[in-house]
Design brief:
Length: about 425
């Protein structure tokens, strides 16, 4: 081979989720794998009308090269919208990105060197682990509970000042993959811990608008704006196909972030920015997002009911208060990755939990997405999962009976990882 690849490419691997999605496209497979918004919630007519208006009123401007920072009116709207949630920022602090994933890439380029540490939740968003992994960091996993990472875990990660994490990457709202919501008190405690430890924060918030029961607390960036970068996206509340996201950064970081953005793609598509600008200026999100919440909440309730009916004892899970995911922990002795081929053969796709861990993966975990399926499909898919797990448990019990220890032996089992302990088997959605 004449090409010589960069050393950092050696650690790169294909996305586990993308590979599973390929298999899920086979006929007869019901997919609970992808973190995709429901296509039935796409505001197609509103997009058509906004596109026509842009092409009628500002066609040449929309189709020309544009400012690297992003479309001015859209940046102003983003700043005003975030102020309603408690995060006050100047539009000059807003950088429009080609999806929030590009924001992660820009921050990795800006803040990470090979061997530098980055603190991440355990488990965390797989796309961020892949993105940051390109820069060859040292992972500092933060164990936690149902409220999020423990503040003491962040303090411990920063105890050695010479190896202090360059930043902590956190998803406070309906986290991918666990669906957990970080409470107000935990946000205060984590922010205080990060401040005392001298660790900046990167707050990723693609699901914050998709709350079902009550709005989430104010962002971390509202509590520590001088040392937090906030990432947002239009993919989950409008459509992912436009690839439109944004970040809000302290003024000191903006010049270098802008230079990195220019080097990456010059600017995010101006046409898409103007179309979305028309939609939000017209108040579409205020009308549209409540319909998504109602739709997704009903699907959440359907999956909670199906899990209660079908799963065997020993499975742990918690119904999310928003977002798109259920996080399951299987009974002892089962491996979600090893069971996946059987699930696919039975017509069900899910995502094993192991790839979401930067270190010390929990093989018993898996993620289920519910927003692209109707109630009947959810019931059918969970019933398939339940039959698979009952069969796997019967096989496990058969093996244990055959390997029953002789008198005097003591069997022990390792405790669950801290991030998994808080999950319970729900008796009500």
């Amino acid at each position: 081979m004449e090409w010589t690849l960069a050393r950092r490419c050696a650690a790169m691997n294909a996305s586990a989720i993308r590979e599973i999605l390929k298999l899920a496209e086979q006929p007869g497979v019901l997919s609970m794998a992808g973190g995709l918004p429901s296509p039935h919630g796409f505001p197609v007519e509103a997009l058509r009308e906004a596109s026509a208006k842009v092409l009628r009123d500002t066609p040449r401007e929309a189709l020309q090269y544009a400012a690297s920072e992003g479309h001015g009116p859209l940046r102003e709207w983003i700043a005003a919208h975030l102020a309603l949630r408690g995060l006050r920022a100047d539009p000059a602090q807003v950088l429009v990105t080609s999806g929030s994933q590009q924001g992660l890439d820009l921050l990795g380029k800006l803040l990470l060197d090979a061997g530098s540490a980055v603190a991440v939740e355990s488990p965390s968003y797989l796309g961020a682990l892949q993105c940051f992994g390109v820069f060859e960091p040292r992972w500092a996993p933060l164990e936690g509970d149902e409220d999020g990472p423990h503040p003491d875990a962040l303090r411990e990660a920063a105890r050695d000042r010479a190896a202090r994490p360059r930043f902590a990457y956190l998803l406070p709202n309906f986290q991918n993959p666990t669906g957990r919501l970080m409470g107000d008190a935990r946000r205060d405690a984590l922010t205080d811990a990060a401040r005392s430890a001298g660790v900046p924060l990167v707050e990723d918030d693609p699901y914050g608008e998709l709350w079902y029961d009550a709005p989430p607390p104010a962002p971390l960036a509202a509590r520590r704006p001088e040392a937090t970068v906030y990432l947002g996206s239009f993919s989950k509340v409008l459509v992912p196909g436009l690839r439109l996201g944004y970040l809000v950064a302290p003024p000191a970081l903006m010049p270098k972030l802008l230079q990195l953005k220019q080097a990456a793609d010059l600017h995010t598509g101006g046409y898409a920015q103007r179309v979305v600008g028309e939609l939000v200026r017209d108040g579409l999100l205020e009308r549209h997002v409540p319909t998504l919440r109602a739709r997704y909440a009903a699907q959440r309730d359907a999956m909670a009911a199906a899990l209660r009916a079908a799963l065997p004892p020993g499975c742990a899970w918690r119904a999310p208060q928003g977002g798109m995911f259920f996080w399951l922990r299987l009974p002892e002795g089962l491996d979600a990755t090893a069971l996946l081929p059987r699930a696919l053969q039975a017509g069900l796709a899910y995502v094993p939990g192991a790839p979401f861990y930067a270190a010390r993966p929990d093989a018993r975990t898996l993620r289920l997405s519910f927003v692209t399926l109707d109630a009947a499909q959810i019931a059918s898919g969970v019933a398939t999962l339940g039959r698979l797990l009952h069969a796997a448990l019967a096989e496990r019990d058969g093996r244990l009976a055959a390997e029953e220890p002789v008198a005097g032996d003591v069997a022990t089992s390792a405790p669950a990882p801290a991030a998994s302990r808080p999950m319970i088997r729900e008796e009500a959605p």
